[in-house]
Amino acid sequence: MQQRARIIYNPKAGHEGLKQSLVDILAIFEQAGYETSAYATTPEPLSAQNEATRAAQAGFNLVVAAGGDGTINQVVNGLAGLKHRPKMAIIPAGTTNDYARALKIPREDPVEAAKIVLKRKTIKMDIGRADKEYFMNIAGGGFLTELTYGVPSETKSIFGYLAYLLEGAKMLPQIKPVPMHLVYDDGEFRGDASMFLLGLTNSIGGFEKVAPDITLGDGRFSLIIVKTANLAELVRLIALAINGKHLNDPRVIYVKTHKLVAKTTNGAEMKINLDGEFGGTAPMTFTNLKQHLEIFADVDAMPQTALAAEGDAGLPETPVKPKTEAEH
């Protein structure tokens, strides 16, 4: 039976570079053996998410998320709740492209990113569930995590990742601690903190060493709790994080966990960030769905230490053989 792929792309992403490269991208997926069609997202809410669900239920074997991390998050949300989930591929064209960076997918050229499918290797990736929503890379709470949705989309389009740094610099003097109660696998934290982060990959906000020892597909989050809200101490921690040296600092808690329950005390509000977008407010329960989605990646470019045990990740794609007349 002919395999089918559905490309869900944001026509505004990458200064419309995706749109201009679409013919070449379609040809690459056809070369990989997929009968391929494309869907341009619309301004309607959850456009990419709804199309991903529709494509999966229509029997597509592969759903391709083409756009920024927001588009990828929507496609993940459209697939993760289904019993039968097709494979995914990613063509990045956003601002930070954290997820593509973690999977070693080219981030500057959509056509080169599409060619990853020709390597025919996939990885089974963990997906996070936050109550009824899903996230593929990060979840967080606290004042520091609010800067990603504090940057206007127009500013992000013009200045890219620099926009996040500029917004973060403006927000730092305003940061105040949040009284948190966080319960994880082997313990709990109760006290003031400026932020907690749950990471599924090592690429968070453009940094690749925030959680340097992540193993993709092992079923665990990397939980980081930043206990200080002092401006000078936060600036120092950010500098340490560039080289991955922040984890030994006494103002940081770093643990692995399968689950997290995040609450506040004293009636405080804590907004939750899911993959860079506002995801509601605490209390919230986060669960790791181990190896929930199978995604094309440049597995050969990844260090073996970043992959789960053999047989769990870095899987060669198994071609679907055409059925004979007797099998139909």
From TrEMBL:
Location of the DAGKc domain: 1-134
Cofactor(s), names only, from the UniProt record: Mg(2+)
GO CC annotations, alphabetized: plasma membrane
Taxonomy, superkingdom: Bacteria
Xref: Pfam families: DAGK_cat, YegS_C
BP terms from Gene Ontology: phospholipid biosynthetic process
GO molecular function (one): metal ion binding
Protein keywords: ATP-binding, Kinase, Lipid biosynthesis, Lipid metabolism, Magnesium, Metal-binding, Nucleotide-binding, Phospholipid biosynthesis, Phospholipid metabolism, Transferase
Gene3D superfamilies, sorted: 2.60.200.40, Probable inorganic polyphosphate/atp-NAD kinase, domain 1 (3.40.50.10330)
Coiled coil spans: none
Family of this protein: Belongs to the diacylglycerol/lipid kinase family.
Name of the protein described by the UniProt record: Diacylglycerol kinase
Organism expressing this protein natively: Loigolactobacillus coryniformis
